[in-house]
Amino acid sequence: MTTNSIQVTAAPDHSLPGEPVETRTVGQISVQQPVLSARAVNIFYGAKQAIKDINLDIGLHSVTALIGPSGCGKSTFLRSMNRMNDTIPGARMTGRITLDGEDIYSGDQDVVQLRARVGMVFQQPNPFPKSIYENVAYGPRIHGLAVTRADLDVIVQSSLQKAGLWSEVKDRLSHPGTGLSGGQQQRLCIARAMAVDPEVILMDEPCSALDPVATARIEDLIDELRDKYTIVIVTHNMQQAARVSQRTAYFHMGELIEVGATNQIFTNPGHRLTEDYITGRFG
Ligand SMILES: Nc1ncnc2c1ncn2[C@@H]1O[C@H](COP(=O)(O)OP(=O)(O)O)[C@@H](O)[C@H]1O
Ligand SMILES: [Mg+2]
After folding, report:
1. Going by C-beta distance under 8 Å and a sequence separation of 6 or more, which residues neighbour residue 25?
2. Helix then strand then coil, % of the chain, to nearest 5
3. Mean pLDDT calculated for residue range 93-99
4. Domains of the chain: residue spans and CATH
């Protein structure tokens, strides 16, 4: 994979008079090994613009956290990366998003295939009203990843193992997924996403409906998963962003204000708006 060529110089309020300004975002939007790349992305709901000229790369096998006040466009931007906004009437996008260098909005993109490669986990755990086994087996079955029942059994078991759920459910695979605890349901949804062998997993506030113990389990799981997957997580919990991510992007009123190493964003932010947010003065 190649490094994308767009480089950031400085934000307007950091640049000296006469210095070139190529984008408003503070920090390095490009990364060495981009999996997803957004360029000049604008998203509208009807006449309302929710996302304004976002440029951002998502790096391979790392966790990128999207943070910012409620309504700043985190979920909207997240959904643009697997075309989930296509399902919202009146939503419209301009700009370009590539996955492994290919435009995901091109006419010949198979959206079902795209959503298998870029899976999603939502705020509320949403298992299908089916058995634990069927929740995980459904995707591989419709994508033709298993020829025999034995193949499917292997995928179901390994996905549940990767999600840290196998030992808790192996004796009740035929029980309904909705009968599990909230934290288990969320790990089931993560297993379901992994069962179709995705490259990227998008998570939209995956712990906001969970208690602290269940949250800690999911955070540990996210940390383990980045060995094999590229993860983008939206969170309103800054401690969570600091704990699980390597790179953090701060959004404000639809704009990407700053992006950088999570360490740096939380200890030495480059933009006043980021600083105000992380110190609790705003949001
Ligand atoms: N389906 C929708 N229809 C119309 N407006 C929406 C829709 N979803 C989000 N918005 C608006 O877009 C903006 C960004 O929302 P969202 O992406 O949900 O922000 P966040 O996830 O950061 O809280 C908000 O002003 C919100 O009201
Ligand atoms: Mg949201």
Report:
1. 8, 11, 55, 56, 255, 256, 257, 258, 259
2. 35, 25, 40
3. 98
4. 12-278 (3.40.50.300)
Ligand index nearest the alpha carbon of residue 73: 1
246 residue type, one letter: Q
Q: How many beta carbons lie within 10 A of that of residue 204, not counting itself? A: 20
Mutate-to-test residue for ligand 1 from 45, 51, 120, 251, highest number of ligand atoms within 8 A of CB: 45
| Closest residue to atom 26 of ligand 1, CA basis | 71
* 73 CA → ligand 2 middle, Å: 7
pLDDT digits (tens, 9 = 90+) for 50-72: 999 999 999 999 999 999 999 99
Tokens of 146: 């298993």
Q: From ligand 1's centre to the CA of 235, what distance in Å?
A: 15
Do 43 and 50 contact (CB within 8 A), yes or no? yes
The answer to whether the predicted template modeling score (pTM) of the entire model surpasses 0.85 is: yes
235 C-beta closer than 6 A to ligand 1: no
